[in-house]
């Protein structure tokens, strides 16, 4: 099976130097040393204990959702064998208790898997971003923190663009362009471990008899190992598998969309199309494919130019009020 190619790298940038060339890129970019000046990174480079102590400075009795798995899952948060459930348990717990458990098992070879994912920093650790932050040029980004030990997060995509900053521990990222969805063997769309559909392939032990096209996906794979202080820009919709390599890991990430806030997630359109289009007779499905091509995927100024501008309605430019009206119509139709 082919090895992943290295992700393009840029060095020498500071958290104040990011511009459209990075933040609007269509392929991933490793940013070596981008957040090396963060006090959190300095603490992590000193020791896991120092990093732990630094995080506790900002703790204010917040609780988070932690994912807990037995040592037998080897850090891979996933489904159970028949995909009827999961191999971990979510619990609500205080952050300091999570840090206590991570410290307890830090020197244990066969530790339980502990993972706190996608937690809003300003809620969980108020004040942390005053010393550890990135200037995204006015983008309305959601800043989150991820804390855990040696874990593996299955390949998935996110709708927003993503800047992932390594604050403690090392992480290995393996990325695939959106076109590889058919070679990644994606699991259920409506029953997922953490909200996003995931690849069913175990990247450390890929079963090529069960998932033969994964070898083709690897021909397009990009990979990088990141150290504390490094960052990775992941464009919207790129599949990414993340492996935390150390017993104490902290990642800070920023998500932002390049579309107006009033736009719904396209996932809703996909789910609705599965209900209404997928199982049509082939000739009808092909007709709808042509309609989608005309009105959505290849739409431009000429699509509705023959209609008077004031009469174009949904075919004209949309704003928040128009979208709210369309949404109300759809809900009314769906609830009949």
UniProtKB/TrEMBL annotation:
InterPro entries: Cupin_8 (IPR041667), JmjC_dom (IPR003347), RmlC-like_jellyroll (IPR014710). Gene3D superfamilies: Jelly Rolls. This is Cupin-like domain-containing protein. It holds the Pfam family Cupin_8. It comes from the Bacteria. The lineage of its organism: Bacteria, Pseudomonadati, Pseudomonadota, Betaproteobacteria, Burkholderiales. SMART domains: JmjC (SM00558). Residues 114-271 form the JmjC domain. Coiled coil: none annotated.
